[in-house]
């Protein structure tokens, strides 16, 4: 029989970084760390208990009625008998001893229990996933299910069906497992577990991945939130993350439902809320800042960007009772809305989250009387908005820079030609205390220079102006470039003629005009007969050779074909 209090030293609670002292008592149990808060649990809260091998020795896992799963790690093997006696004597609970699979296989069978997902290998659990630690799940492919876990800064996994906040780990390590993917092949019949399916005679097949996904959403409470929705907006266009989503708004959270991904976001994670008029006179954007950011695989989205048409009107009735409206949301929400769509959505978000709607500063107006300027951040085009205390660039990647983080602003333009002066760049350099670095917004219209410069001065921001404003220098450079272009054009036009004049036929050897007599010369004489009529006692042999054999040099004009030497024989 154990004593009134049993104490165990160097015990870790829920993967805590520091150990503490754990005690069993007839009234309950408790854990006191060296530094931090004390954890306690009443004796009526315990449901079942398991003993198994763990990272720091042996683990005692407690399944409670309303507090989820409690993990106590760091026990020695010699503590097994003491723990078993305490649980039996104080709480009338038998300790179950479980062995884990150590084969290292990554294929097995998934089993859903009341509080955990077991991955069994050879009928032994390889690992368990508490549903309280699952923050989201999505179908990542036809046969693939992605499971996302709550991080230390995520505030746990939301609320359970009873409305209690889900438990999160007492303290997490620097490296945390944030996502796991399961490959679930094959198909199952939807009516296998349905008693009425045999009577109907028809059973619909569905993929095993879909069944796994639906079961996990139900068990982990990441599907439909308990209770009615206050508001539902259908087919809302999101620029970040790209796609169309339905928005379901609840008392303490809202849910994005898309074709591929579903997200559940707590209102406490909403840190900023912006309403920005797009400088095209057609659209308005709603930007929601999240901390921690939304995760989609390896990609993080610290901002959600929605887009609405300005001319799109919406009539909307809030799904809430008047008593609850007057009791909890008096002055924040109203039963009926009839305004442009972006105003209705922003007003409901403001009422439920309690966040102030941030709009562009009235101290800034662009050359075209807009609240933002078009620019690009690296290879991404977007719009830069000047707020009262910060800059924000949307839609992707969304960047938020407060003035108190800004060291100085540089207005610069690459190159000195006239064509480059049509646009300029704005570089925002951060303070060294903020980690340094800079953001360069490129291709801003030259007309926006004065309005931006005036706004920077009104906010007492340091400006470094590297723009080339000397018009005479620009004009001289332009004239110089034009003269160089004219010289190139003249040289190109005379190129073919100069080449023809300078080209020389190296094979041609010039002779004097008297060497060869042409037919039109007065010295030319015809033989007057054929070779057969010539007698041996006729003219001189040299004269005969001159008459019978003449070399004629034919010179071709410069604009004709290539020069040739033609040798003709007269018979």
UniProtKB/TrEMBL annotation:
It comes from the Eukaryota. Residues 479-571 are annotated as: Disordered. GO terms for cellular component: FACT complex. This is FACT complex subunit POB3. Residues 498-520, 530-550 have a biased composition (Acidic residues). One of its GO terms (biological process) is DNA repair. The lineage of its organism: Eukaryota, Fungi, Dikarya, Ascomycota, Pezizomycotina. Residues 370-466 form the Histone chaperone RTT106/FACT complex subunit SPT16-like middle domain. It comes from Tuber aestivum (summer truffle). Belongs to the SSRP1 family.
